[in-house]
């Protein structure tokens, strides 16, 4: 089941990754863009605009998938890139979850 999903995602994302690479986007730049979209999402949560916040979370997730795909299709897979991607993913999680807790949408202690 998961293998079929992985194949479908690969077929969908690889052409986008090739196009992104052709316009000069590097995997690390896309990782940073994903983090900034997470920051925008957190800001929108705090401002109470949950629909747009959700849209930016989805964009951030898409960029997270795209950065690895760009690295693979261009042969630019590096340990640093993997570390940066993982680090920014965790920072994104913390920022978004902190904004949800800050606004009491989900209290820290239930």
UniProtKB/TrEMBL annotation:
Domain of life: Archaea
Record-given protein name: CDP-alcohol phosphatidyltransferase family protein
Transmembrane feature ranges: 21-44, 50-70
Organism the protein comes from: Thermoproteota archaeon
GO biological process, one term: phospholipid biosynthetic process
Similarity comment: family membership: Belongs to the CDP-alcohol phosphatidyltransferase class-I family.
This protein's UniProt keywords: Membrane, Transferase, Transmembrane, Transmembrane helix
Membrane is among the record's keywords: yes
GO cellular component terms attached to this protein's record: membrane
GO molecular function: phosphotransferase activity, for other substituted phosphate groups
């Amino acid at each position: 089941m998961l293998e079929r999903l992985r194949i479908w995602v690969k077929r969908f994302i690889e052409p986008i990754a090739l196009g992104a690479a052709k316009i000069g986007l590097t995997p690390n730049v896309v990782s940073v863009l994903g983090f900034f979209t997470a920051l925008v999402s957190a800001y929108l949560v705090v401002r109470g605009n949950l629909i747009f916040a959700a849209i930016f979370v989805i964009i951030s997730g898409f960029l997270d998938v795209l950065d690895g795909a760009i690295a693979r299709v261009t042969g630019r897979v590096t340990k640093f890139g993997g570390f940066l991607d993982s680090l920014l993913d965790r920072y994104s999680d913390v920022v978004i979850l902190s904004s949800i807790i800050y606004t009491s949408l989900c209290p820290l202690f239930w």
